[in-house]
Task: structure prediction
Amino acid sequence: MAPVVASADVVTFFVSGTFDDGGTFAGTFQLDRTSASIRSYGLASTRGSVFEGFIYDARQPFPAMANILSGGCGVLQFSFGLPGQSIFIIAFPAVPVATFDGGAIVNFCADVHVPPPALTSFEQRLPLTSMVRSVTGGQAVAVGSETGLSLTASANPLGAMVGQTVTTSASVNNPGLEGSADLYLGALLPDGVTIVFWTGESSLALGSLTDTSTFRPYAAGVSLAMSFVRNMPDFFSHQRIGSDPHGAYLLFNLATRAGAVAGGTLTSTDVLGLTTTAFVFP
Result:
């Protein structure tokens, strides 16, 4: 998705980057630029040479994710973690929070709350083996501003072995807005590019993160004029098989203005809502 200039107080960012072993991470976070706080986040880290990946759960409350402010090398330093299992720090160059529109992730920051190298992911391979990987860089891109449309996405369980079943749920809460929307549900695979879209019932379609014209909605041209709530508990389930790719899958719930993806890119005015969470096949 193309970078945009974010003008609203609450901005959604798509973030991606790499670890020192070739592994990658991707996901979203929502920043309230007036209070310098994170409203929600969901990140997945994918498999590298020896890096198995882990889960960053968007439903975890603070302080599962701490937002650390520093005027030294990064005005935004995000620490993502699950207690006793993983810590993952992303730092950005120093800019005022109120005008932060994304940018490059810096790979060293001297004044964060952990010893150098600061950008380190402490990963726990299920069930026991712990590993440490450093973040070598990445990018945060502003992809949308708050519109009032509220989206959720969840997966259960957050980690599944062969033979176990992962079930996904989602919801859309529309307070009543102008225009119409295309609604998407899907998962970004561990390769960081391939997307599997759920298009209704048991139907699936493939797309690519690099070309939004390949995105396939489960509902197109939905009028937003009248308020509605659409709850989709257990809308899809998958029993893991041995040939499924190992690593973390980024589940997403996306709403765009109707027809916006046709040109192959999205702008901030196109994205009405986006939320992500992750589950892993270790």
